[in-house]
């Protein structure tokens, strides 16, 4: 009998290790499903899943992860995983912010279903992590899933590695994840007696998620935001054209010794940019270089320089035409990015071979940042036929970041926590308008947050905004200011 148990225990550890080591989205989901099947764990038993998994997988190595996750789960805001029990949430989008929000909501005890329209995590591009985000991710066991996570002074991570790690934590905590499912629109409750409540129209329409009824929906599907009811404001600045490029990192000693560029703004280092222009004809406003799984560069280039170097074929006043695929020479773009990368690193990187993107093409791209979007409001409440729905935005759907600054993930995580706080208040029965007013007050803070002006006591951080924002004024928006804008007229 003892032998059988030993075999089962070591099988559990092996299966769990396969999940930990999985290096793709599909591989992770497959390893998770095998683990559940072989260990007789029910992934739909959200409430008990984590406890059952912990009981099944015991080894000193995994114990360190359980200790971290237990410590997080024991924070009093979560009410021992019961603060939001009975609340059903649909999260749209499995980017870093959708996943990070899903984790908080699961810790609060919600039933969380997350849908993602793709089944690959392919973005090599690298996100800058503010110190609080590094601390936060360490507390979720980041190092267990990715040993190189923020080693030494490294403060960045590739988007795909971050998604992968957050996906694993989500699954372990009992978030129900469905890939290859695309959100199309909300379906209102119908008039028939006993009709289902709020649901979503998804593609494929026959997917089981279309039957899921929820009380809360989170829009985390990136800059295009498909969740209806939220108007957006546009910030139009002066023309800003960004280029991202990823080169293969062979992890050689020569590559390891090359210094990163963590953001050389023109005003701070004019000489660098003047020399770059004199030597190569490339005129930049800024450049960032991070050494991660790839050598990642993001730079803002001046239009005249892109025209002179033949990257842009013709000049057009409208940015859309200017950057349309027909007007961009891919050869010249590659050579532009390579030259800038070479100069920026003092010609120290031995070979600048492009990494490939999801389509197998050299991973270099040009983007327009002239105009960025932000949602007019962060949350709204809809009511149809007596059924309430709380809808909220997080991440790029809420506030689009300026990539060269890499603020998307840091502000995205703050908004994820603020949203979880609102949902906790909603479940606790706080007055609707008061809750929305508080959420909007916090949202007004978000664009002003920097790694310097938020609290430095990361150990104290929780979804409670008071733990993160010093001098917090959560009443700067008053309840009477949110009512007409954020809650559409009540239905029958
Ligand atoms: P995203 O990371 O955009 O995730 C949104 C997710 O929603 C995606 O996985 C998408 O497939 C999914 N989705 C979209 N529509 C639907 C739908 N209808 N139904 C279901 N799922 C849906 N920031 C930087 O700082 N530096 C960079 O170099 C950089 N490069 C980027 C490159 C690309 C191609 C993109 C899209 C974004 C980039 N960003 C970059 C932005 C950065 O990735 C985000 O700020 C960060 O990932 C947090 O975003 P998020 O989770 O809100 O959204």
From TrEMBL:
> Which residues are listed as membrane-spanning?
none
- EC class of the enzyme, as a word: oxidoreductase
Shown portion of the complete protein runs from 1 to 492 of 762
Q: Which UniProt keywords apply?
A: Actin-binding, Cytoplasm, FAD, Flavoprotein, LIM domain, Metal-binding, Monooxygenase, NADP, Nucleus, Oxidoreductase, Zinc
Name assigned to this protein: F-actin monooxygenase
Subcellular location(s): the record lists: Cytoplasm; Nucleus
Report the EC number(s), separated by commas if there are several. Answer: 1.14.13.225
Its UniProt entry gives the catalysed reaction(s) as:
L-methionyl-[F-actin] + NADPH + O2 + H(+) = L-methionyl-(R)-S-oxide-[F-actin] + NADP(+) + H2O
Which co-factor is required? FAD
- Report one GO cellular component: nucleus
Q: Which gene name belongs to this protein?
A: LOC115391844
């Amino acid at each position: 009998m003892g032998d059988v148990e030993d075999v089962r225990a070591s099988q559990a550890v092996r299966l769990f290790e396969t999940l930990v080591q999985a290096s793709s989205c599909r591989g992770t989901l497959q390893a998770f499903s095998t683990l559940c099947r072989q260990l007789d764990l029910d992934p739909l038993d959200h409430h008990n899943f984590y406890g059952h998994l912990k009981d099944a997988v015991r080894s000193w190595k995994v114990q360190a992860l359980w200790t971290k996750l237990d410590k997080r789960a024991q924070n009093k805001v979560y009410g021992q995983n019961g603060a939001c029990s009975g609340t059903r949430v649909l999260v749209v989008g499995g980017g870093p912010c959708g996943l990070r929000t899903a984790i908080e909501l699961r810790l609060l005890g919600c039933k969380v279903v997350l849908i993602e329209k793709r089944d690959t995590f392919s973005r090599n591009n690298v996100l800058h992590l503010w110190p609080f985000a590094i601390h936060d991710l360490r507390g979720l066991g980041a190092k267990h899933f990715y040993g190189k996570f923020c080693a030494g002074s490294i403060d960045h991570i590739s988007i795909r590695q971050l998604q992968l790690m957050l996906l694993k934590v989500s699954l372990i905590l009992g978030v129900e994840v469905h890939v290859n499912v695309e959100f199309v629109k909300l379906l209102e409750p119908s008039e028939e007696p006993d009709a289902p409540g709020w649901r979503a129209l998804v593609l494929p329409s026959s997917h089981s998620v279309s039957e899921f009824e929820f009380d809360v929906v989170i829009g985390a599907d990136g800059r295009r935001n498909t969740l209806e009811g939220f108007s957006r404001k546009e910030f139009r600045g002066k023309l800003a054209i960004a280029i991202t490029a990823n080169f293969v990192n062979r992890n050689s000693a020569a590559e390891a010794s090359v210094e990163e560029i963590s953001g050389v703004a023109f005003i701070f280092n004019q000489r660098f940019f003047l020399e770059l222009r004199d030597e190569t004809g490339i005129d930049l406003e800024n450049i960032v270089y991070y050494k991660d799984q790839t050598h990642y560069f993001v730079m803002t280039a001046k239009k005249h320089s892109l025209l002179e170097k033949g990257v842009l074929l013709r000049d057009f006043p409208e940015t859309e035409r200017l950057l349309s695929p027909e007007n961009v020479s891919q050869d010249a773009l590659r050579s532009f990015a390579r030259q800038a990368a070479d100069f920026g690193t003092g010609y120290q990187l031995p070979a600048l071979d492009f990494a490939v993107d999801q389509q197998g093409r050299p991973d270099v791209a040009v983007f327009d940042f002239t105009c960025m979007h932000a949602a007019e409001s962060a949350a709204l409440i809809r009511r149809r036929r007596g059924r309430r729905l709380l809808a909220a935005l997080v991440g790029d759907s809420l506030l689009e970041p300026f990539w060269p600054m890499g603020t998307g993930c840091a502000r995205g995580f703050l908004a994820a926590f603020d949203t979880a706080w609102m949902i906790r208040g909603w479940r606790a029965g706080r007055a609707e308008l008061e809750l929305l007013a508080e959420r909007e007050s916090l949202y007004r803070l978000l664009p002003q947050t920097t790694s310097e002006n938020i609290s430095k006591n990361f150990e104290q951080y929780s979804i409670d905004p008071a733990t993160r924002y010093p001098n917090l004024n959560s009443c700067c928006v008053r309840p009477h200011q949110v009512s007409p804008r954020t809650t559409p007229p009540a239905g029958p």
